[in-house]
Amino acid sequence: MNKVRYLLLAAVIGFCFTLGSPKIEARQVSVGVSIGPPPDCPYGYYDYAPYACAPYGYYGPEWFSGGVFIGAGPWFHGPADFHGHVNNHYDVKHGYKGPLPKRGAKPEESRRPGNQTNFKGNEMRDGRGHVVNGKH
Fold this sequence. Notes:
There is one protein chain. By secondary structure, this protein is mostly loops. It has a domain at 61-135. Helices cover 14% and strands 11% of the residues. It has one helix and five strands, in the order αβββββ. Strands 3-4-5 form a three-stranded antiparallel beta sheet, with no helix packed on it. Strands 1-2 form a two-stranded antiparallel ribbon. Strand 1 (64-65) and strand 2 (68-69) form a beta hairpin. The chain starts with a helix and ends with a strand.
């Protein structure tokens, strides 16, 4: 019987503490995240984190303007209705295990960005990380 009495006393004391505690107002806290500048990659970078450099042949020529990558993911600078070809055989998410250029590397002279001949794209992407119109 003593155990029940002690348990009841503890419950009453706990209830009293909740009544006597001051009210705390919730405040919204927002944190801005700056992702910084786009990766400096010779042939563009994948449109998903961690935004690794994409190899030559991943992006089709429409992803380049004057040999400069128009961006992808958070740094995309193309038109709102943009749909560009990619060859996802060069995507690490699709099993590509070949070499990837390093950030800051310069393009090879024989592989100028945007000047691919015989490009074989098999997917359309919107520049914001989404596949559009299914496979091409």
